[in-house]
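FORM 7B: Structural annotation worksheet

SECTION A. Query
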Amino acid sequence: MQQAAPQLSDADSKAKLASLAAQGHATQRSVGAPPNPRDSAQLGQLARNHGKDTLKAIGAKCDPTLDPNCK
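SECTION B. Predicted structure
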């Protein structure tokens, strides 16, 4: 019969949570922060390219009746 693992003490639990939080923050820093919603240049770029990029990703074609810039 297999024995259960020993229970974590409060100190062990807090140390593990602190370690996981630090790893999470490090991961967020390495990935980069999302664009600031107040950055109008980035939002404009996203608005211009997001639809086209998404359509390319799924292999769809644009509809000239819906998009006058469709080519």
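SECTION C. Observations
Helices lie at 10-31, 40-58. The CA atoms of residues 11 and 17 lie 10 Å apart.

SECTION D. Sign-off
Analyst initials: ____
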